[in-house]
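Note to self: user wants both folds in one dump. Writing first protein now.
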Amino acid sequence: MENAGASMSKNDIIEDQGPIIVFDAMCVLCSANARFVLRHDHGGRFRFASMQNETGAALYRRCGIDPANPDSLIIVEGANVLRDSDAVLAIYAGLGWPWKAMSLLRLVPRMLRDPAYHWLARNRYRIFGRRGTCWLPTPEQASRIL
């Protein structure tokens, strides 16, 4: 058997370890959401990359999103990418109960969900504020941040 690891890139190894939430670490709302997920993701399913770091920016570019002006958070799992309201609902579905109940909002058509998501994303700094520095995880959380 060939050594499969020898031909794998760093990005392949990173992406094969589970879903990555790429978010804006300067955004107060986005950082609060990342902390919420870290606190409630008891199985350690999700990992995180900020759009401000090399990994997050590369994942955004791969998805055709400008990391300097993103219009969505994304979840990347291998070749699969979720964005906009689908990404948010997938996060809550992945947290288990009671948060999984939020995934029932998938019954609302995307054509109604996504405009609300885009409005909030465009206005996130004005409504919730912008951090002076990127949010940093606690030492316990650091292993889940790429």
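First done. Writing the second protein, which came from a different request thread.
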Amino acid sequence: MIKNQIKSKVISYKKELILQEAGKYIEEVGYNSLKINDLAKKCSISVGQLYQLFESKDKMFYEYVLYQINNFYNTLIENCKDTNFAQEKLLIFTKLKLKIFQEKRKAILDPISGDPLFFVKFNNKNPSLIIQEFLSLQFKDLENSYNIKIKNPLQLAYAYNAYTLGYIEYCLNNNIDDECGDKLAKVILDTFLHGMLE
């Protein structure tokens, strides 16, 4: 029993170290240019060892995205700990999302925006559900202050997440990072909320 627990923790730790190195590499060259041989060399392991941990390039990328989502979520929760206001939490989410996508543009934008069913292909629970749940809670809180057209907070969460992604794609595809900071985050949130009010 203990032997299996140790083995599982070792595998988990190896995966995390490789995902950290893979992240740097993917963020440098982009997912489409990622070569497993080069990644194995960067990690100082064989291609066979890499495939023992991840099975395929797509599954390794899935794990990378899951790792990034969890990091994003933890950072989001940490940044929101000093406020109880839903609108402020939504603004923090939007600023953070703009920042992360700018930093990781090569790694994240093409595979996920180019394949909206990326997570479904793996028959796993969509790892971004924790983000949707966070957003859903904020929209539920906003119902107390605003008369919002859509009464389903989870539906609003999905709509807002997609709305922000549209702006992010616009910024990244047009290389206008300087216009896509905190000011834009406020515009995104304000225009979305304005459109949702009755």
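Dump finished. Worth passing along: The chain has a mean pLDDT of 84.
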